[in-house]
Design goal:
By secondary structure, the protein is α+β, with helices and mostly antiparallel strands. 32% of the residues lie in helices and 31% in strands. It contains 12 helices and 21 strands. Strands 1, 3, 12, 15, 16, 18 and 19 form a 7-stranded mixed beta sheet that branches. Strands 5, 6, 7, 8, 9, 10 and 11 form a 7-stranded mixed beta sheet that branches. A 5-stranded antiparallel beta sheet has the order 2-4-17-13-14, covered by helices on one side. Strand 6 and strand 7 form a beta hairpin. The chain is globular, with a radius of gyration of 23 Å. The relative contact order is 0.15.
Length: 444
């Protein structure tokens, strides 16, 4: 493991967990790459330097937000709470989203700089938010993108709240918007109530490397927005990439973030020189994330060994400043060693096994809920039963509790369950939305 420090920024480290031993003829190498950032100023409330961070808050103001009225009231209060959480020096703006996007504050295509005066002005402007119109989320994101592109801030972030489906915009338009915005800013997405589409909201968050969640009760919005904005204010390094270099003959099968949430990065690769590619990880504060890397190496005979991949955390030159070369933050190595020791080559690394199980857990939940919607009782019971079994064995207590609201658990260890006759929409949507949240491997 190698570490490289960058002045006035968190210190990054990379650790690689794997079983490097392969049987003769074995080709697939799996590794968990743990990236940790420490020593930053995440926990402080100190003002940020002007130009460091920019945030745009997008609030659904479509007609459905007035039914019940608590939703619109909760949205106003939550956005005000988010504004209060902004550190002095943060550039920010508020957008009202319907079938069009309108600037609420400060207006005129610009961002305000957070201080006592601008926060008070923004909260006063929020009092005028009212519900009416349709929903075209792409227009909200395009306006946010335009505002953020006008900023020189390194940390560029959006927060999007919606209560409904994107009914006034073609799906292809939203997809094209997400493709255009990817890499320009990150975005957290929240669904309030139970009339929005889980895949739509989680798709926005995944595309823009943010978090997604449900806030079924509007009364809880302010607390959620405060926590979310505190997390954003803790980000200090933007546009960090996981760079994978592989020798000639080695093929990358996939790259996935597996903690704290599952996110497939395989198709997000950008070329970074001979046999090297960058996978985006977004912005970082004091935190740890884990990535599952699978590479396919050439066949070799017993006794041979090779470097299968080099994992380097970098700030690309365009993100790190005017330097010609990227800033190297940390580095780790993935190895392959061929052996005829059956015990060595068949052992599964604990971290790899754990996160493979977490990925299977998420898939079982999503497939089980889909089968339940389609009326496939047998399929839903089998998949959700397997999910209960995996949640139990991996110690994922939060997911186990959510599953227990959808099925009656007869035997968690065996995965024996019965579908509940009636399930609240909020419970089903919460399980679906949070199915990709994982627990850390238990390290002994």
């Amino acid at each position: 493991m190698a570490n490289f420090a960058k002045p006035s920024a968190p210190r990054f480290s990379v650790e690689v967990y794997q079983n490097e031993f392969l049987p003769e003829g074995g080709r697939d190498v799996h590794a968990i790459v743990t990236v940790t950032a420490t020593g930053g100023a995440t926990a402080t409330r100190a003002p940020v330097a002007d130009g460091t961070a920019a945030v745009v808050l997008m609030v659904d103001c479509s007609g459905s937000m007035e039914y019940p009225p608590e939703k619109m009231r909760g949205a106003r209060e939550a956005t005000a709470a988010a504004v209060d959480t902004l550190r002095d020096g943060t550039a920010f703006a508020v957008i009202a989203g319907t079938h069009v996007a309108k600037e609420v504050y400060p207006g005129q295509g610009r961002l305000a700089i957070a201080d006592a005066t601008t926060r008070a002005q923004a909260k006063e402007a929020l009092r005028g938010l009212s519900a009416g119109g349709g929903t075209a989320i792409g227009t909200w994101l395009r306006l946010a993108d335009g505002l953020l592109r006008g900023s020189t801030a390194a940390i560029r972030h959006g927060v999007l709240l919606t209560d409904g489906r994107n009914e006034h915009e073609e799906p292809a338009v939203l997809r094209a918007t997400l493709d255009a915005c990817a890499g320009r800013f990150t975005c957290d997405a929240r669904g309030v109530g139970t009339d929005w589409d889980v895949k739509e909201v989680t798709g926005i968050a995944n595309a823009l490397l943010g978090s997604a969640d449900i806030v079924a009760d509007p009364a809880h919005l302010a607390d959620d927005f405060t926590r979310m904005m505190e997390n954003v204010m803790g980000k200090e390094v933007a546009d960090v990439a996981l760079r994978l270099w592989t020798p000639v003959g080695v093929e990358i099968q996939y790259v996935k973030q597996v903690a704290p949430v599952l996110q497939d990065l395989t198709d997000r690769r950008t070329e970074a020189g001979p046999r090297a590619g960058d996978y985006p990880t977004g912005s970082w504060g004091d935190e740890s994330r884990e990535y599952h890397v699978c590479v396919r190496v050439p066949t070799a005979t017993v006794g041979q060994e090779m470097l299968a991949a080099r994992a380097t955390l970098v700030l690309p030159a365009t993100a790190g400043g005017p330097q010609e070369k990227p800033t190297v933050l940390a580095q780790g190595l993935v190895r392959a060693v061929w052996t005829n020791d059956l015990a060595a080559s068949t052992a599964i690394n604990a971290q790899v096994a754990h996160y493979t199980g977490q990925a299977e857990l998420a898939e079982a939940i999503q497939q089980g809920l889909e089968a339940r919607k389609m009326g496939d009782v047998g399929g839903a019971t089998a998949k959700l039963g397997r999910a209960v079994q995996l949640a139990s064995s991996s110690g994922n207590a939060d997911t186990a509790r959510l599953l227990a609201k959808v099925v009656d658990v007869v035997d968690a260890v065996a995965g024996t369950v019965r579908l509940k006759a009636k399930v609240a929409d909020a419970d089903e949507m919460t399980l679906d939305t949070r199915s990709t949240q994982t627990v850390r491997v238990k390290k002994t």
